[in-house]
Automatic annotation (TrEMBL):
This is Ig-like domain-containing protein. It is found in: Membrane. GO terms for cellular component: cell-cell junction; plasma membrane. GO terms for biological process: cell-cell adhesion. The gene is 5563703. PROSITE patterns: IG_LIKE (PS50835).
């Protein structure tokens, strides 16, 4: 009877309902290629019994019924869960192969209504070793820094999956207050995470070591580090020369700024959850001199939650400016416009993001 029901259900499109949220475990499955016995579970809150459960496994041609009373039609895939009577169903993949990367889907029926759950399956990829880069508007010639002037640095962990977790240390002591929000960008299932550091160099910082640690399960020891020795310059005779050289540069208008939302910020169809932390980066590329930013929420100037601007100079002498805004989302933000305005001697340009919120 169950086998006949399953065959019929596969031929009928589902009308998915809202109201019940299918609980999935895990929420995301990040595993190494060849991982064995991956459990994928879908359950109805409260253990309400289900009428049926249909699953679609990435790499498997067609959906099928997942039941403790029905053998699965796919080799290497077995039933997993507490049973339909307890609102539970899922599968175990004996071995995760490249074809299994993608989104696992389950459709559960309760009292004639159908509800869907999903689990993303992706292979872990070790990021490149982290690097610390010094902002191009900071004089670090000969690896030395001027007393009292800002040391602006960026730590980057590139092309890993999932994103690495960054932390900073100055001579072994954790750094907290000098950091901007970490910003993550995902391209082709590879995550790059960056974070900016800013601190005025003090006498006691001489000979200390600034360290950025990237933590990731795919690293042999669980983490890798990049280090920047901090050494005070005995004099700052280069300051006037540097300023003079910059002033002689021919103006080049930067590209229009872009606003990017960090990939690790949860959104619902582009909407931000009230009470969550929004992380947004503004970028303007290839300007000479570098562009500077002003941020607005509607007509109100935004100045809290901004990281220090970070500049990167290319081989042609043009600068890319990056700045990150970290802000707690409020219900009153709904419908407001976040603006990043790039200022430059050649003129101003701006980019806008209309905020949508949900509770």
């Amino acid at each position: 009877m169950i086998k006949l029901l399953a065959s019929l259900l596969l031929l009928v499109p589902f009308a998915l309902c809202s109201g019940i949220v299918v609980q999935t475990a895990p929420k995301f499955a990040f595993v190494p290629e060849g991982h064995q016995n991956l459990n994928l579970l879908c359950e109805i809150p409260g253990s309400n019994p289900i009428d049926f459960c249909i699953v679609k496994v990435p790499g498997v041609a067609a959906p099928f019924a997942a039941s403790e009373r029905l053998p699965t039609p796919v080799q290497g895939v077995t039933y997993f869960g507490r049973g339909w009577s307890k609102g539970s169903c899922g599968v175990t993949l004996a071995k995760v192969e490249p074809k299994n990367e993608g989104t696992f889907e389950c459709v559960l029926s309760v009292a004639g209504q159908t509800y869907k759950g999903t689990i993303d399956i992706a292979f872990k990829v070790a990021p490149e070793p982290p690097v610390i880069e010094v902002s191009s508007n900071v004089d670090d010639s000969n690896g030395e820094f001027d007393y009292g002037k800002p040391l602006i640095a960026k730590c980057a962990s590139r092309n890993g999956w999932p994103a690495a977790k960054l932390s900073w240390y100055l001579d072994g002591k954790p750094v907290v207050n000098e950091l901007g929000a970490a910003f993550t960008e995902v391209v082709d299932k590879k995550a790059t995470v960056e974070q900016f550091y800013r601190k005025a160099v003090a006498v006691e910082d001489n000979r200390k070591k600034l360290v950025c640690r990237a933590e990731h399960e795919s690293y042999p020891n669980g983490f890798m580090e990049a280090a920047l020795p901090v050494k005070l310059r005995k004099s700052n005779n280069n300051a006037n020369l540097i300023q003079k050289d910059v002033s002689k540069d021919v103006e080049v208008k930067p590209s229009a700024p872009k606003l990017l939302v960090s990939s690790d910020v949860p959104t619902n169809d582009g909407s931000f959850r009230v009470g969550s932390t929004m992380v947004v980066e503004c970028v303007a590329r290839d300007g000479k001199p570098a562009a500077t930013f002003l941020w607005f929420l509607d007509d109100q100037l935004v100045y809290e939650g901004l990281s220090t601007p970070f500049l990167t100079q290319n081989s042609r002498g043009a600068f890319t400016t990056q700045q990150v805004l970290q802000r707690v989302v409020k219900a009153s933000d709904n419908g407001k416009t976040l603006v990043c305005k790039a200022r430059h001697p050649s003129g101003t340009s701006e980019t806008r993001l209309t905020l949508k919120t949900y509770s």
